[in-house]
Here is the input.
Amino acid sequence: MNDTESTLRELLGRRVLILDGAMGTMIQRRGLTEADYRGARFDRHPKDLKGNTDVLALTRPDVLRAIHDAYYDAGADIAETNTFGATSIVQAEYGLEAHAFEINVAAARAARESAQEWTRLTPGKPRFVAGSIGPLNKTLSLSPSVADPGYRAVTFDQVREAYAEQVRGLVEGGADLLLVETIFDTLNAKAALFAIE
Here is the structure.
């Protein structure tokens, strides 16, 4: 057991830890434009990126950092990374599947930097980072084709590997724990848990 895990377990034995709120809502309130999502790095990218909140880890990490800071300032003990859809499978919709690992590392680092700063400011209240692992836009349990109910757009191994890549990025970026959340397909969730294992 490492020091972070020991600290988390000790705190959980004494009190409820508060998780932050909705990242997507906070990003929407910022009124970001297509140019914000693209940044200089993706200014010539062939697909629209507005709405792909995960790419902001690469193009506008300052926005993510400000949101994490606001949640820690409001009393959160744990901030989730901005990686709800940061798998290669979801990012393929935007043509950014090759950047999934990097997005996860950068998003975890943004949350980690904020957590470290708030822990430094209030050493009696350490802050933590939860790596957010969300649903996919493809399901293992249902066919996307009414005409072919046995068809699947992805395989279990593809889903597991996409989640494993995400997990590696979150851990490398500094996540203290992993949060599998809002996955509506239990087989997809199982693949995420296998990836973590």
User: Anything to note?
Assistant: The chain has nine helices and three strands. The first strand starts at residue 78 and ends at 80. The chain has a mean pLDDT of 97. The first helix runs from residue 3 to 14.
